[in-house]
Amino acid sequence: MVGWEVIHKASVFIAEEMGVALKRSAFSPNIRERMDHSCAIVDRSGRIVAQAEHIPVHLGSFRVGVENTLKWIEREGVELFEGDVIILNDPYIAGTHLNDVMVLTPIFYRGKLAGYAVNKAHHVDVGGPQPGSINPSARSIYEEGVIVPPVKLYSRGELARDVLRFFVENSKTPRITLGDLNAQIAANSMGVSRVRELFDRYGLKKVLEGWESSIEYARRSVAMELSSWPQGVYEAVDYLEWGDDLLDIRVRLEIRGSGIHIDFTGSSPQVEAPLNAVFGVTFSACSFSVRSVIGGDIPTNEGFYSAIDVHAPQGSIVNPVKPAPVSGGNLETSQRIADAVLLALAKAIPHRVPAQGSGTMMNVMMGGIDSQGSYWAYYETIGGGSGARPNGDGVSGVHVNMTNTLNTPIEIAERSYPILFSEYRIRYGSGGSGRFRGGDGIVRSFKALSRLRLSILADRFRIGPRGLAGGGSGATGSVTIVKRDGSRISMPSKFTIDLDPGDLVVIETPGGGGYGSTS
User: What DSSP line would sit under 413-459, residue for residue?
Assistant: First the structure.
């Protein structure tokens, strides 16, 4: 008799295989090289049963995004059939930001709905006024890109060409957009086929029972772990930069029995800036923080997620009301939410939590017109230093917290776009001091080879990542523009600027905080 563990591991492998298929067939370097995508398998009730080890901010948001989408489908009276494919990117439904296009494919077996294959992938451009569709100056979501509510891209296996044409033609890079979207559809199709093979091998009833058992096992395991933690209330605050202001992220974390309640009452109200985090992002950052501290081989499925209760006041920066802009909420506010929650957890279980990492995804967006007269758009994030650990130094030059992407190889970027890299190295000495040092950040510099528009959306330019237990803070980040005439411009953490050929951009990412006093 096969155990639930076999079914659970097989389901996780299916999600991983979906990710491999998506990566290998995508057109954009952002997905093909950086792997800015995530995949999961969901049961027919919308519960996460298995997910790949992809992007934390995507994975936690699947729970919110799938639930919202299925409720939307029911409310609108939409009936799903075999061969249907749903796409959407509305952050207030899908749970992240407009660039993250979500594809949901129902899994039918012998005529009955048995589950869903779902993925998200960050499209480099989904319209809007700025290259990359992440607009540092956006005051509403309508200034960030085209909004797609849940809609059938395929109906009973037939492509809705008008839907596809509408979405693709709103992108500045339609060929890339079409290629990436087809990769997502193909990845889900593989997931559907593999789950059906699982049903064929073990039987529908046995697989559904295995999924249920894995959820229950995760629930019991998390409850057992949390019951051993010090019960009580722990508070923390951290800040985001917006102009001359600092925006509060306030956390009140209560460990109670078999669950954790996280309350963001007192956090900054939503702002007319792209730093608002929809609830899916906030839940993702909270669940990532808790999952990181729990550790162990616990399935990250509905059983785990159900132990985390998040209260985010509506109208706040961590749960805005539409049409507040949200592109950077997914990128930068998610990082700060994780930092604040981990600070609170450090007060409860201090020997499990590292010092703060770089705390920014250091988002770089640029684009322009190439020599053939076509528009191009490029997006990347740049890593930094991770925080020192209670038992060792931090790691240099890595992505931390809510991202989990690879770097874009210089050779790929230079071959694809009119930029030339002049420097890419570790930013030595940028990690915080302490008994264990924080990891160092990165220096990444490039020269514009043609006229282009550059946007940066980053953070930690004013307040460096904090150390713990007496450790020092990591160095803050910076961006410097060196013009062709040699003049230097020190830039803020969020800006858009037009560059001329020969202008140089020097990006320095923060180092991680140190751990422990040296005295």
Answer: HHHHSSEEEEEEEEETT-SPPSSBPPPPEEEEEEEESS-EEEEEE--
What are the structure tokens assigned to 471, written together? 């450790």
Nearest partner of 318 among 307, 305, 332, judged by Cα: 332
Dihedral sign of CA atoms 466, 292, 330, 277 in order:
negative
Place of tokens 């990006």: 507
Structure tokens of 31? 């997905």
Express each pLDDT in 307-336 by its tens digit: 999 999 999 999 999 999 999 999 999 999
Write out pLDDT tens, residues 145-200.
999 999 999 999 999 999 999 999 999 999 999 999 999 999 999 999 999 999 99
Checking if the pLDDT of 33 tops 90, the result is yes
For residues 333 and 344, what is the distance between their CA atoms, to the nearest angstrom? Answer: 17
Structure tokens given for 111: 């005529």
- Name, in order, each residue with C-beta under 8 angstroms of 143's C-beta and a sequence gap of 6 or more: 128, 129, 135, 137, 325
pLDDT, tens digit, for every residue of 10-24?
999 999 999 999 999
Nearest to 356 by CA among 269, 432, 435, 254: 432
Which residues, in sequence order, are CB contacts of 199 under 8 Å at separation 6+? 109, 114, 207
What is the structure's pLDDT at 295? 78
Which helix (H) or strand (E) segment holds residue 377: the answer is strand 375-381
Task: Tell which residue, 296, 267, 445, 289, has the closest CA to residue 357.
Answer: 289
Q: Which residues pair with 242 in a beta bridge?
A: 245
Q: Which two tokens stand for residue 336?
A: 């700060």
Amino acid at 78: V
Which of 334, 354, 346, 345 lies closest to 512, judged by CA?
354
Q: What is the pLDDT of residues 46-72, one digit of tens each?
A: 999 999 999 999 999 999 999 999 999
